[in-house]
Each structure stands twice: as C-alpha cells, then as structure tokens.
Specification:
The protein has 508 residues and is of the alpha/beta class. The protein is 34% helix and 19% strand. A hairpin with a 5-residue loop joins strand 2 and strand 3. The chain is globular, with a radius of gyration of 23 Å.
Length: 508
C-alpha cells in the first residue's frame, strides 16, 4: 500500500488488483454510469484496478406506469465530480494519471439550452413513451434499409422516435433546446466546458451511419434535427480538445491528462470481460442482458435481429440485447414459491427434466431478436403438477434460449466463436445458469471472476492510445462449464417449443 494518504477504499478486498506502489504507469481514471449507480476507479497500464482507488454512488431511474424512465443529468454530473474528488485526492497520484475515460448506459438523451444547462431530464434507454412516434417512423421509413445504414432497428430504445416525441408533445422544450446530447456528453460539458460524442456513444443512438461514421441524414430529417445540433464525433484514440484549464485546478492529479469522449457501456463491458475479437462471445447477465462479439471489420449486412455499432473505422460491436435476465430472476424470487430449503441455484443445478414449462421470458418486452416491444412473458405447458421449482427452471431455460437465438445470428455473420465469457450480477447470483447456458449454446462457458468489468473495459480503451505497447494483465476466470452431450436433445426440444410459441403469439 502507498505510504501516502489512505485510498478511498482501504478495505477493498478485490483479488484482481495491484497496490499503487506496484502499479505500472501510466494510470487511467475510468468512470462508469450504469442503471443503478455511478462508479469510478484507477487502473494501471496493464488494465489492472489499483487497490482501494475506487468509489461508487448509487442512484436509480425515476419511472412511471406511462413508460417514463429518466434521471437528473446534473445529479449524475455531481456524482462523477464527487468520485473524482475522492479518488484523486491522494498527492501520490501527481504526474501518474495520463487519462480519464467515461462510459454510460447507452441511448441516453439530454436537451441543452443556450446557457449550456439541461432543459430536459436525461431520458434513458428504457423510456418507452415514444411508442406512437415509433409506429409513425416505421410507417414512413424503410426500416430494413435504416438497419443496414445505422446498424440499429427503429425502436423506442433509440433516439429518432424519442426526439420526434419531444418535438410533437413538448414543442416549447423543443424550441429551448439548442443541442441534444448523451448523458456522458452533458457531464463533459458541465465539467470540462466542451463536449464530443465518442463513436460508440453516437452509434448507440441508432442515428450514426455505421460505414461512414457520420450522422444519418434520413433519420435527422425524420426527427427534425440539423447535424449541428448534435455533437462532433470522436473515435476512441482521439482525446477531447479544448478542455477548460479549471479542470486541472480542481483535480491537480489530472494536470496534463487526456480526456476521452464518452462511450457506451456495452463496448466497455465486452472489452473488460475479455472479448477482444470474434473468437470470444461475451454474455452480459445483469438486470438486462446482451450477447456480443467485437469484429475487426465492418460486415456487409446486419441480421434483422441484431445491432451493429461502429467503434471506429476498423471495428464494430455486433450483438443483441435481452430486456430481462436479472429482472427475470428477481421476479422469480419475489413471486414464485420454491419448495422449502430450495434455492434458485438448486433449481439451476438440477438435471434437465421432460415436462418443464417452456417460458418466453419477456417480462418488460423483447428486443433481440424479434424486437416485439409490447411482448410480455408467456408460461406454457404448465399443469396441475407443475411446482414452483418447475416454473423457475422454465424461466432459466427460457433466458438461455433467448441468448441462443442471438448467438445463432451472430454465428451467421462472425463465425468462429470458440468460447463464451459471462459476466454480470445474474451470473454470480445464480451461477448454475452458466451450465444451462453452456448446454443450450453447445459451447463452453466461463464466468468472469472479477467485478467491474465495464470500468476495466473503459480503461482498456483509453490505454490503446496511452500505453499501446504494454502487455495487458489477464483477469481471473472461473472453470469452464462444458456442454453435456446427454442434455443436447432436451435443449433442442426447448428451443423448438420456444420458437413454436413465439411464432404463434408474437411473430406478427
């Protein structure tokens, strides 16, 4: 431990970490804004977290039954500033921190007035009040063509329908807003006096041309925007220009440090978990979920069930998202009565059994692969003899089948996936889900045995520029769960019944 002042978390028991005195320079300060909190932590040049130099401030979205999902952007700005105040206070950091990198949850939107202050809350990816405007866009535009240009479907998670909704339902606010930006850009505007969109943030709006890296003109026209109302776009290797001198005055440890434009958390989670190329499929299993591969190249076509987000001129992230993973587990814990003494882990570790209910686990709608936003969960083949454990097993198998539907389309484009790495709270809460996933995918699945993979990925992206020649540390992974050949027929049947139900109830 450093002989200087104590770090913010002197009792941090993280195994995957390095003492400050042993950390390899340059250091990177990584910041992450997720659905449940803001986090920050120092990483060394190998991508290893610096022991004790991290902090988290919890928050939550404000939601309502009409589809509202927002958060105060100034609150988040204050959270991140407070994290920087705390983590960077140690004088031992002087001259060692070379960069600050930020990721946030994707598809956020803040309207900013002429005085550079927010005139709207931050609308999150989960705000679905623009469903009517989405229907209008789908009637007006060629959605398959838009997917191929931008790599994103038309959906309430993206910005075109949300911008149109604001314009149509709140014209006064629309007129007051001089610029529209992501939450990360707004944080930079308030802290640095300037704002640019990282390419990965711009791509997650659903309005960036995935081949050229420029804002998509047909979608700008459809929602009534000029490109000048959006931020300039920077690739990951391009530091933010024109940072205010007051920044180094407030945080002396950052004197001379580069700030990098904010990126979307999905890219960071992939990199931080070990998904550096198409050989590794990264499965994120938190409140929501995703399955992604990082491609070194831009595919000619994007499958209809997936998204393809530009990272820079030579890379993109191909994948699909699930609304309900940890959320489905919470529903089971809150709603379904298991036999006395039985846990969800016991249910997950039980042998696959014929007659298990088949579940479409769309508790809050579907994104990939069918994009049926109004879908709801379906529990089928439930009989009088079905137990709570049977229902729970059906939900877990349904979640795995949902991941498999995404993986199938990924393989069609990427091919060559050799291993699956899983990360996120749901993989830790019910580790037996990893075996179900391995059996369903037919591939070995290893769980990342370290926390804050998203923060690490954000640091790694900055280190590509700041320390390109330093060998990165390999984080710890758990033992691989190999698919059991004897269960293959069971999971083929589960998937066939899943598709039968989906076709009958949701395909239209």
């Amino acid at each position: 431990m450093s002989k200087h002042s104590q770090p913010p978390r002197p009792d941090d028991g993280a195994d995957f970490s390095v003492d400050l005195q042993d950390a390899a320079d340059p250091l990177v300060m990584a910041l992450d804004v997720g659905s449940t909190g803001s986090r920050g932590g120092l990483h060394d040049a190998t991508g290893t977290p610096v022991l004790g130099y991290r902090h988290k401030i919890e928050h939550e979205f404000r939601t309502a039954a009409d589809g509202t999902s927002v958060i105060d952007p100034d609150q988040v700005t204050e959270e991140l500033a407070g994290i920087l105040d705390l983590v960077l206070a140690d004088h031992a950091l002087a001259g060692r921190v070379a960069g600050v990198a930020l990721d946030t949850f994707a598809s956020s939107l803040v309207g900013v007035g002429a005085d550079d202050e927010a005139v709207t809350p931050c609308f999150t990816y989960a705000d679905s009040r623009c469903a009517e405007q989405l229907a209008g866009l789908r009637a007006e535009l060629d959605e398959p063509a838009a997917l191929q240009r931008t790599g994103a479907r038309l959906h309430t998670s993206y910005l075109a329908p949300r911008l149109r909704w604001i314009r149509e339902t709140d014209p006064q606010t629309w007129e007051r807003a001089r610029r529209w930006m992501s939450l990360g850009e707004y944080v930079h505007l308030r802290l640095l006096g300037t704002a640019c969109a990282g390419t990965a943030t711009a791509a997650w709006t659903g309005m960036l041309d995935r081949r050229t890296g420029r804002w998509d003109e047909p979608l700008l026209l459809a929602c009534g925007l000029d490109a000048e109302q959006l931020s300039p776009v920077l690739d990951p290797h391009e530091p933010v220009p024109d940072v205010a001198v007051s920044v180094a005055e407030r945080w002396p440890a950052l004197e001379g440090a580069h700030w990098f434009a904010p990126v979307a958390d999905g890219l960071s989670a992939n990199l931080g978990s070990g998904g550096a190329d198409a050989s590794t499929l990264v499965v994120s299993a938190a409140t929501s979920g995703a399955a992604r591969v990082l491609l070194h190249g831009i595919p000619e076509r994007v499958p209809s069930g997936l998204w393809c987000y530009r990272v820079d001129a030579r890379r993109c992230l191909l994948g699909g998202a699930l609304n309900d993973v940890g959320r489905a587990i919470r529903w089971l814990e809150d709603t379904v009565a298991l036999p006395e003494g039985t846990t969800l882990q016991d249910v997950a570790e039980a042998e696959a059994a014929e007659g298990t209910p088949v579940v479409l686990p769309f508790f809050t709608g579907e994104r990939s692969t069918g994009w049926a936003g109004g879908a709801r969960a379906v529990l089928a083949d439930v009989t009088a003899s079905s137990t709570g454990a049977d229902l729970a097993r059906g939900v877990l198998e349904g979640v795995a089948a949902s991941y498999a539907r995404v993986a199938d389309q990924l393989e069609d484009v990427a091919g060559g996936v050799e291993r699956v790495v899983a990360s996120g709270s749901a993989s830790q809460d019910v580790p037996g889900l990893m075996q179900i996933l391995a059996d369903t995918l037919g591939k070995p699945v290893a769980r990342a045995e370290f926390k804050r993979a998203t923060l690490r990925g954000t640091a790694l992206l900055a280190l590509e520029t700041l320390a390109p020649d330093v060998e990165r540390a390999r984080p710890p992974y758990g033992p691989e769960h190999e698919p059991e050949p004897g269960r293959a027929e069971h999971y083929r049947a589960v998937r066939a019944r899943f598709e039968e139900l989906y076709g009958a109830l949701l395909a239209s």
